[in-house]
Design brief:
single chain; about 375 residues; mainly alpha; four-stranded mixed β-sheet; 15 helices; 4 strands; about 5% strand; elongated; FlhB; transmembrane helix; transmembrane
Length: about 375
C-alpha cells in the first residue's frame, strides 16, 4: 500500500509532451507583476521624455483658449478652431505615448512564458461554474499566495512612498518660496523622479514573483511515475506493437538483402550453418564487401537463391565464420581477411574462365587459409 501511495506522488519533472500539451491549453508561466511593473516604468520614463512636449502643447492650448478676442467669443466657429488646435497639439504626443505603453504592455506579458494563443483557454468549462470550485479558489493556497502578494506590494509601495517623501520633504516645502514659473518646473521635476523611483520599487516584487511563478508552474505540471510510464507507452507504443514493428523491419531488411544475393561474386559457406555473399566491385569499393549473410534458415535461403542464379558457392568454414562475425552488411571485409578472400575470388574467377573454355581448371582452395587468430570464431 505504501508503494502504491508513493507511486502516485508527483515527483517526476514534466516531459516535453506534457509541456507541449500545457502550452496548447494556454497553461504557461506568467507574472502579472512583471507586466504591471513594465507598464509603470515605461509610463514613468515616457512621461519624463514626452512631458516637456505635452507641457508646451498644453501651454499653447491654454494661450489659444484664454486669449480669445470679444468677437471670437460670440463666433460659433471659434470652438471648432479651438478643437482643431487641441487635436493638432495633443494627438501626436498622446498617440506616441499610448503606443509605447501598448508595446511595452505586450512585451512585458510575453517575456515570461513566450507568445501563446490557445482557444482552449477561453472555452467555457462547467467546472468554473461550480460554486464549490469557486470557494476552493477563494480560500485555497493560490488565493493565500495572491493575498500575500497584495499585502507585500502595498507594503513595499507604501514604504517606498514614505522614504521618497522623507527624502524630498524639504524640497517640497521650498516650492512655496520659489517664484513662477520656476517652482512649477521644479515641482514637475520632483514629480517625475518620485514617480520613476516609486515605480522602480515594483522591481523588488518582480524579482520575487517571476521565480515563484516558474517554480509554481513546474510544480503544477509535475507527473507521477505512472503518468510517465503511460505517456511513454502512448508515445513509443505498446511492447507487443513495437515488437511487431521490429519484426516487420527485419523482414523488409531481409527481403532487401536476399534481392542482392544474385549480384554476389561468391557465396562462402560453412557449409550448412553460415553463408556469406561477397562481391568485389572496383567502382564501388577498393576491397570486397558483404552484401548478404545469415545463419541456419537464412543461410539455407541464401544458398538456394545462389543456386537459382548460378552464383558460385565455396565451402570455407573458418572464413565464412570470420566474415559473418566481423563484417556488417555493405561493409568491407577486414584487412586481415583480404588474402583469404582474394584466394576465394581468384578461384571463382578462374573457374568462370574455365567453364567458358578460356583457361585451365583452377587448383582447389587451400584448406589452411591465412586467417588471423583474433578473427577466428
Amino acid at each position: 500500500m505504501a508503494d502504491n501511495d508513493s507511486s502516485q506522488e508527483r515527483t517526476e519533472e514534466a516531459t516535453s509532451r506534457r509541456l507541449e500539451q500545457a502550452r496548447e491549453k494556454g497553461q504557461v508561466a506568467r507574472s502579472k507583476e512583471l507586466g504591471t511593473a513594465a507598464v509603470l516604468l515605461a509610463a514613468a520614463v515616457g512621461f519624463s521624455m514626452t512631458g516637456p512636449a505635452l507641457a508646451q502643447s498644453l501651454s499653447r492650448i491654454m494661450t489659444q483658449v484664454l486669449t480669445m478676442e470679444r468677437a471670437q467669443i460670440f463666433d460659433t466657429n471659434s470652438m471648432y478652431r479651438v478643437w482643431g488646435v487641441v487635436g493638432s497639439e495633443l494627438t501626436l504626443p498622446m498617440l506616441s505615448f499610448i503606443g509605447m505603453l501598448a508595446v511595452v504592455a505586450f512585451l512585458g506579458n510575453i517575456v515570461l512564458g513566450g507568445l501563446s494563443f490557445s482557444t482552449k483557454a477561453f472555452m467555457p468549462k462547467g467546472s468554473k461554474m461550480n460554486p464549490m470550485n469557486g470557494f476552493k479558489r477563494m480560500f485555497g493556497t493560490q488565493a493565500l499566495v495572491e493575498l500575500t502578494k497584495g499585502i507585500a506590494k502595498f507594503s513595499v509601495i507604501a514604504l517606498s512612498a514614505y522614504l521618497l517623501l522623507s527624502f524630498y520633504f524639504n524640497d517640497l516645502l521650498m516650492l512655496s518660496a520659489d517664484h513662477l514659473p520656476g517652482n512649477v518646473y521644479h515641482a514637475l521635476d520632483l514629480l517625475v523622479w518620485m514617480f520613476i523611483l516609486l515605480c522602480s520599487s515594483m522591481l523588488l516584487i518582480v524579482a520575487i514573483d517571476v521565480p515563484f511563478q516558474i517554480w509554481n508552474h513546474n510544480k503544477q505540471l509535475k507527473m507521477t511515475k505512472q503518468e510517465v510510464k503511460d505517456e511513454y507507452k502512448d508515445t513509443e507504443g505498446k511492447p507487443e506493437v513495437k515488437g511487431r514493428i521490429r519484426q516487420m523491419q527485419r523482414e523488409m531488411a531481409q527481403r532487401k538483402m536476399m534481392s542482392e544475393v544474385p549480384n554476389a561474386d561468391v557465396i562462402v559457406v560453412n557449409p550448412e550453418h553460415y553463408a556469406v555473399a561477397v562481391k568485389y566491385d572496383v567502382t564501388r569499393s577498393a576491397a570486397p564487401f558483404v552484401i548478404a549473410k545469415g545463419v541456419d534458415e537464412v543461410a539455407f535461403k541464401i544458398r538456394e537463391i545462389a543456386r537459382e542464379h548460378k552464383v558460385a558457392i565455396v565451402s570455407a568454414p573458418p572464413l565464412a565464420r570470420a566474415i559473418y562475425h566481423t563484417t556488417k552488411l555493405d561493409q568491407q571485409v577486414p584487412e586481415g581477411l583480404f588474402t583469404a578472400v582474394a584466394q576465394v575470388l581468384a578461384y571463382v574467377f578462374q573457374l568462370r574462365q574455365y567453364q567458358k573454355g578460356r583457361g585451365r581448371k583452377p587448383l582447389p582452395i587451400p584448406l589452411n587459409q591465412p586467417i588471423p587468430d583474433e578473427l577466428k570464431h
